[in-house]
Amino acid sequence: MIFTLVSIELYKIFKKWRTYIGFLAFGIFIPILIYGVSVSGNHYQRILQRNIGDQFLIVGNLVNGWYVAFITIQAMIIHIPFFITLVGGDLFAGEGSAGTYRMLLTRPLKRELIVVSKFIAGFIYTFIFVLFFALISTLPSIYFLGVGDLIVPLEKIVVIPSKEILTRFLLAYFSSFISMCVVLSLAGLFSSLVNNAIGPIVGTMAVIVIFLIIGELPFEFFERIAPFLFTKYMTVWLDAFDYPIDWTKIFNSLLILLGHIVLFFAITIFYFRKKDILT
Amino acid sequence: MKKTFLLILILINVLFSQDKNAQRIVENIKANFDLINDYIVEIKGKVDFPDAVIPELKAKIFFKKPDKFKVESDNFMIIPKQSIRFSPEILYEKDFSTLIIGEVDIDKVKHFIVKLISNNPEVEEVVTIWVNSKNYTIRKMNVIGSRVGKVEIDFYYKLIDEKYWLPEKMVAIFEASRIRFPRIRKIEKEQKDNSDLYGEGKITIEYFNYVVNKGIDDKIFEDKKKSVK
Fold first, then answer.
1. Complete DSSP assignment for A168-232
2. For a pLDDT cut of 70, what percent of chain A falls above it?
3. Would you call B119 helix, strand, or coil by DSSP?
4. What is the predicted pLDDT for the residue at A207?
5. Do A155 and B183 touch (CB under 8 A)?
6. Is the ipTM of this complex over 0.95?
């Protein structure tokens, strides 16, 4: 039963052209990025050379395929959530705007089952999108720019040896998948409240952007609030590039994110069970 | 009047003789390295840099007279330029002045302290070297300049093939604030204030398996892959 329901939901998702906007956007952007990096040459190494070249020799290919993949994964903070909300925001509201709620709910199915199938279908879409993103950001860039150590130039400079990089990226993409599932769940929750997808899409993005801003504000009041915002843990994939890996931090962040998924899912079920269908 | 003239004469003589002695020391250092036509050596290095984590590096250095070299490595590495010719760059320039500024015992061996100053007004770096009086190797080097800040390098030697003094270890200490890694994210102010970013950085390099004067094909230096020349 659930398999059939999920299949139907997946059919609905992949039938809409908006589902493919994210695939199209990154399918066009990433090859341009790779071309730009290969034409610009080893920009990072040139800056480094200018800074320290008087006294030091710099060896190794720093701007390689892994580096491009690392640059693109930064899109997980704000750009990819947008493409996830496009689908998540339409999960329930799409039925409302299409006028199919009544038809769906008059079938002999528990409403909980409908919510579960919609969430599972949303998670599958999220998985496919993250997988597509992972493949398109790594494979072509590695093919055109080669491999080497990965330099992670964040607050702390970390150079990850080439033999460890694949594991780090797998961990990062898995963590970002969980983060994106939180986004989808929130969009799904908002979607269940209304009959038009625009509200949930804008609403989810507004929550993410506002939470991110609050999390970055350097004032004591906001610093106290920040640990209670799920966006603080959404960048857990960045911890995959720390040295050494802080497994406790990653595990805790993932648990908090999973907790949010369960919470948003539970609220959706709670609301949807009693939802008065008027369309 | 006669006494003053004599004093000036003595002073000029002392200065000239000191200059000659300093030049002789430099010539001896060069002569030491002139014995080496080429070498291949494996290196293992460790970079300690505040706010940066760089794994242990492994590489192979190829050197051929007069100035061909290649560092072959699969990894990212930062190594001091002096780790190739084991002496400051200025030593291979033509126009520089030398001055002995003292002597000191290091490991119970007398070392001359020699200052090397470029006569090119655009070169502002001042290099000081501590030269072993027995084998004329550079035991210690100090480079000061407004761009590089202060770099201190210690060399520890061993006799290779019973005739070539070559380093088995090199330790370079430098001002971390002078090395600026480009970053994607700006360092938060608070973190910047609390960090050791303005502390010292250290690069330790150990040299293994020297192959000296066995000849190296020039083609080796043409292969750009995985190397810096």
1. HHHHHHHHHHHHHHHHHHHHHHHHHH-S-SHHHHHHHHHHHHHHHHHHH--SHHHHHHGGGSTHH
2. 97
3. coil
4. 94
5. yes
6. no
Q: Chain A contacts of B228, Cβ < 8 Å?
A: 57-59
Classify domain B2-215 by CATH architecture: Clam (2.50)
Residues 228-257 of A with CB under 8 A from B: 243
Measured in angstroms, the CA of B87 and the nearest CA of chain A are apart by 12
- B92-143: per-residue pLDDT in tens? 777 788 888 888 888 888 989 988 888 887 777 888 989 988 888 889 998 8
Identity of the residue in A59, A61, A155 whose CB atom sits nearest the CB atom of B71: A59
Q: Where are the alpha helices (DSSP H) in chain B?
A: 2-34, 82-85, 189-194
| pLDDT value, residue B170 | 92
Q: What is the per-residue pLDDT across B9-67, written as a single tens digit (0 to 9) for each?
A: 555 555 445 555 888 888 888 888 888 888 999 999 888 887 788 888 888 888 888 77
Q: Give mean pLDDT, residues B213-229.
A: 69
What's the pLDDT score for residue A179?
95
DSSP state of B85: H
- Those residues whose C-beta lies under 8 Å from the C-beta of residue A125, and which sit 6 or more positions away, are A10, A13, A14, A19, A87, A184
Q: Where are the domains of chain B?
A: 2-215
Q: How far apart are CA B58 and CA A161, in angstroms?
A: 11
The residue among A47, A57, A71, A160 with the most chain B CBs within 10 A of its CB, best to mutate, is A57
Alpha helices in chain A (DSSP H): 2-15, 21-40, 43-52, 65-73, 79-88, 93-98, 101-105, 111-145, 162-193, 198-216, 220-225, 231-234, 247-273
Is the peptide bond preceding residue A244 cis, with omega within 30 degrees of 0?
Answer: yes
The domain limits of chain A are 2-273
Distance from CA of A162 to the nearest CA of B (A): 8
Quote the pLDDT of residue B226: 47
The burial class, CB within 10 Å (0-12 / 13-18 / 19+), for B26 is: buried
Contacts of B54 in chain A (CB under 8 A): 157, 159
pTM assigned to the model: 0.78
What does the block give as tokens for A202?
């804008």
Tell me how far CA of residue B212 lies from CA of B33, B62, B66, B188, in angstroms. Answer: 11, 10, 15, 49
Phi, psi for residue A41 in degrees, rounded to 5: 75, -165
Report d(CA A58, CA A180) in Å as an integer. 38
Residue among A48, A71, A155 minimizing CB distance to B182: A48
Q: Do B52 and A149 touch (CB under 8 A)?
A: no
Instruction: Pick B177 or B107 by higher pLDDT.
Output: B107
B96 by Cβ neighbours in 10 Å (0-12 / 13-18 / 19+) ranks as middle
**Chain B CB contacts of A67 below 8 Å:** none
SS3 B108: coil
Beta strands in B65-108 (DSSP E): 68-72, 77-80, 96-106
Which chain B residue is nearest to residue A151, measuring alpha carbons? B76
